[in-house]
Amino acid sequence: MQKLVGVCEEDDEEEMEMDVKEEDEENREKQIAAEMMMGVDGVMPSTSGSDQFQYQPQSQEQVSNSGGAGARRSRPLEEKERTKLRERHRRAITARILAGLRRHGNYNLRVRADINDVIAALAREAGWVVLPDGTTFPSRSQSSTPAAGTSAVMTSSSSQMMSQQTPSPPTTLQGVSSGHHTTVEYNACSMKGVFMPTPSPYDLSSTAHARSSGMVADGREQTERLPPLAGSMEVINGKQIIGLPTKLPERDFAGTPYVPVYVMLPLGVINMKCELADPDGLLKQLKVLKSINIDGIMVDCWWGIVEAHAPQEYNWNGYQRLFHMVRELRLKLQVVMSFHECGGNVGDDICIPLPHWVAEIGRSNPDIFFTDREGRRNPECLSWGIDKERVLRGRTAIEVYFDYMRSFRVEFDEFFEDGSISMVEVGLGPCGELRYPSCPVKHGWRYPGIGEFQCYDHYMLKGLRKAAEMRGHSFWAKGPDNVGSYNSEPHDTGFFCDEGDYDGYYGRFFLNWYSQVLVNHGDRVLSLAKLAFDGTCIAAKLPGIHWWYKTASHAAELTAGFYNPCNRDGYSAIAAMLQKHGATLNFSCTELHALEQQDHLREALADPQGLMWQVVNAAWDVCIPIASENAFLCHGRVGYNKILDSVKPVNDPDGRHFSSFTYHRLSPLLMERQNFMEFERFVKRMHGEAVLDSQV
Q: Residue limits of the BES1/BZR1 plant transcription factor N-terminal domain (predicted)?
């Protein structure tokens, strides 16, 4: 990175010097030309055919009659020198600005960019539209009309497009244009807020905020006339009326591979007494879901409910009744071994703590929980430092997990034997995900904070000391001290900033150890899960830590345990570990944020799609299946289309696709008529069936 930045700065300096040299040469040429025009000793070229040169007495007289002529001649030379200095200074400033933007802002500026390119890049980053002729206007302005000689985009509300629940006849937005047209490059990479055809017309990326829009133009220059896109054109009173359809063609998924669709049950479907909370209401909802041919349901099997009161005393009663109900409807089951606490995180509407007997141990030995640099404990799940420590009434954490999974396998043997249970997802950390609890809301974290390292309990620090001693640097047996706090940004810290300590000798040692603990924990638990559920698919869930993905350090991923800076692949080792156990990778970042969240994505230099494809490629490189689920509530067609594009990639040369999709989650809102109709349509397309309405 330093070399690349150095090259950019050298190019800018060379450009500045070359331009200054060119200007000096031009000035010298102009001076020589002037002297030639003046001639030698007052002789100027003559246009007469008789004499080659003609004596001009007036010129000589002007020189001799003025005593201040030398001063007047020197003034232009001084002005030229001052102009050159000013220009040299200006170009030096421009070079530094360009170098800084390339280095810190991820701006894609050409090598010989000028100030116009800089202004245009900044304007587009702020959400403005900059046309090739320089016309600039706000991309979301609907009420204000630009002045003459400018252009504007009239965009329909994206939130209305997503929340529109009742079908309506197709309408068009009409834009009024004079007879002149400006050249518009329909390029999704360079313009925002302009109606642009792309391979995915329902893409919700920041470059496609106004897909159903009309254009109002009053440009004064015309270099190329472009036809309207999939719309109509009329001429009224000398004005061209361009109608653009509000509905966009969708990709046809008829005949594509069959991808099973599961629905995640509500968090409180089983109460704290391990009873089915509302069997009649649930049965009614399951029958409705069965009517649209979903493949099955997913449910959490909470450690804090089943083994709540005493070690190795398991109560599966509520789950027995639920599983029989599901099997009678001929639906499949995906179950989650949930070894974490429920409550306190985004989307949690109930509280299910860890087992009471574990909490009692934690009161006397709080080091069984993850701990941050300030000593704050997080009882959301057990620290990975006690995986091999006999601190849980004579058992290690790994043994506790295995005993729980073995009890489940024995209790529901008939469901395994007849294939009713199609997959078991093993919880490996907070929210059931393989990650550190680096972003706890209960400790004040808010998006898009970088989070904090969680390695300060006694057992994790003991492992760090051992690793430092084996490396021969015992003074490295500590966590970094210049990492900021939960809500810091990477550039505000000495560790995560560009060229920060994360890429130094100690930083690389610490991050390698920290991430390896994560991989080792997943390896241990999955090896026992494979033993307990032999013959059944097992899975592990990875989170989508997409904020600060466009920075060099990927700070939020580092604190979560994914050693994935810009110069290292942090997911290949995890994929290899999953491949070792034949486990499926469940990833929950397959859809983009809603349109109103795009500003937050830009501010946090987030890239959900870039992260998703890095993880997907890491998994496909080692040939392991990929399952998926939505990370945010989704009831609209636009969101479903984005999920479909991710689950069934259109351009994959090998025709690969995800193995299953789980919808989060069953709720009264999903069962509303219009929302349910959209969900039914989504399920059909997941199954590769044809649908009637192919417009969005």
A: 71-209
Greatest Cα pair distance in the chain? 124
Q: Note if 374 is an active site residue.
A: no
Q: Which of 15, 380, 389, 433 is catalytic?
A: 433
> What letters, b where the CB count within 10 A reaches 16 and e where it falls short, cover 390-410?
ebbeebbbbebbbbbbebbbe
**Phi, psi values for residue 169, rounded to 5°:** -65, 145
Under 8 Å between Cβ of 575 and 616: no
Residue 70: CB atoms within 10 Å: 10
Q: How far apart are CA 129 and CA 230, in angstroms?
A: 22
Comparing 170-184, 240-254, 564-578, 579-593, which segment has the lowest mean pLDDT? 170-184
**Mean of all residue pLDDT scores within the chain:** 78
Q: Which helix (H) or strand (E) holds 164?
A: none
Q: How far apart are CA 137 and CA 183, in angstroms?
A: 15
Q: What is the pLDDT of residues 70-93, one digit of tens each?
A: 444 556 777 877 888 888 777 777
Place of tokens 């601190």: 391
CA distance 96 to 485: 31
β-strand partners of 593 = none
Alpha helix segments (H runs only) across 449-504: 458-471
Distance CA 454, CA 439 (A): 10
pLDDT of residue 106: 60
Q: Which residues pair with 338 in a beta bridge?
A: 302
- On whether the CB atoms of residues 121 and 110 are closer than 8 A, the answer is no
Burial of 601-628, coded b for 16+ CB within 10 Å and e otherwise, reads: beebbbbbbebbebbbebbbeeebbbbb
- Residue 601 contacts residue 206 (beta carbons within 8 Å): yes
Q: Residue 646 is encoded by which pair of tokens? A: 């991710």
Tell me which residue of 559, 468, 465 sits closest to 518, measured CA to CA.
559
The pLDDT score that the predictor gives to residue 71 is 47
* 174 membership: H or E segment, kind and range: strand 172-177
N-to-C CA span, the chain: 43
Read off the pLDDT band of 95 (50, 70, 90).
confident
**389 labelled catalytic:** no
Query: How far is residue 447's CA from residue 450's CA, in Å, rounded to a whole number?
Result: 8
Number of other residues whose CB lies within 10 A of the CB of residue 281 = 10
Of all helices (H) and strands (E), which one includes residue 254?
none
Whether omega before 448 lies within 30 degrees of 0, making that bond cis, reads yes
3-state secondary structure of 613: helix
Question: How far apart are alpha carbons 605 and 54 in whole angstroms?
Answer: 72
Q: What pLDDT is attached to residue 68? A: 47
DSSP characters over 43-85: EEE---SS-SEEE-HHHHHHHHH-TTHHHHHHHHHHHHHHHHH
